[in-house]
Sequence to fold (458 residues):
Amino acid sequence: MLTSAMESIDAATAFDFAALRASEFARLDTAGIAYLDYAASALYGVSQARAHGERLAHGIFGNPHSEHLASRNSAAAQAAARAATLAFFDADPDIYEVCFTANATAAIKLVAESYPFSSRRGLILSADNHNSVNGMREFAGRAQAPISTLPLDAQLRLDHAPAHLRACVNRQGGGLLAFPQQSNFSGVQHDLSLVEEAQALGCDVLVDAAAAGPSGTLNLREHSADFVACSFYKLFGLPTGVGALIAKRSALDRLRRPWFSGGTVEFVSVAHGRHSLKPGHEGFEDGTPNFLDLAAVESGFAFLARIPRLCLRAHIQSLVQHFLALAATLRHRNGAPLVRLYGPRDVKHRGGIVAFNVLREDGGVLPYEHVERMAREHGVAIRGGCFCNPGAAEKAFGFDAAGVEHCFDKLEGDFSIEALRHCTGGAATVGALRLSVGAPTAYEDIERAAALIAACRE
Ligand SMILES: Cc1ncc(COP(=O)(O)O)c(C=O)c1O
Fold:
């Protein structure tokens, strides 16, 4: 835990990030790209890609459901990937299981489709959630389970979360609470003590760790969430197509799988219509796992282990601080600000993500697509839209739910951005820009983003 600005600077400079960029990510400079989209995907280091290529070139990997050497090679790679995943989250292997999935979304869906929702066991979502978590409400709704939302404050942090949580539980009983470790919209790192608060009220807790990235601080010995979802490409770029549900064994036991499939069953009888699921993670891993990509997980974690997490955190904070400071100086000729920031204005309890809009001289919002187009032309890779996080976006943009309702009715399901803009007479801000940083990011990348924003001046 960083205790002072001075310690933070020391940690940021204690690791040579410029050397890392030169040796592992030189392709960014060759291509002239300021890559600032780490919340969408981390980038892999060149040595990591080579290590995986070498492993595939020389190893023999077969379907892990067989028993021969090639199969055992895959099983061993998966066991190593499971151990590295537990170690990353500091999860006790006696308590936690790792179920491999296609991505974080699939990990969340495993819980959503199997959770015993009922009229007394509902779903509590933070307003700040990715749609891959918001979608859980469809399963809860089908079970006639109550669904509540914990609101956000003006800084896009959870607003008095313990009090709102208690009120929800008093109203609807316990159930499942789901919130992100770090917002993929604002970069806010939510207070993880909410895990203990919710468990003390009889709730299960799912923490979505997808957007927290490699500098994330979720320690499962400290905050023993029942379920955690992640995607590996967001941690170290390679492999894609593999994620994990890290779950307490006791929590997995409370889930009821809606089906069985190849790979998940101990026994199936067609004549008797009976089946029994395998215990632990095997009962949750449908079909043949992505065993060649899983073989890249260990080298991904090994790559990350070269960068002390404290240094990475400080590097990320320092880059965000640099952007916030530059953004504050950007003004129109009439002195009006050029940038509207969403979320916290400082780097406390936030990760490497900043959401903003570029403003016109009259204070109106420049359509985000316009800035995105200019960014592409400038070789600056940032993201535009609401980043699949409509709850945080609605709060950030001051969404007028009642005022816009007639538009939803009028549009009859055609919710295209243009149609919504037209219907609200241009009043609705429908998207922002998101800049996100990672280990390879250099201060020059941030300055290129600031120069791009300055170039949007009319
Ligand atoms: C907070 C959060 N949750 C879930 C997801 C879904 O991740 P994936 O698309 O890898 O399943 C994302 C992706 O951006 C995310 O940022």
Residues 63-304 form a domain with the Aspartate Aminotransferase; domain 2 fold (CATH 3.40.640.10). The chain has 20 helices and 15 strands.
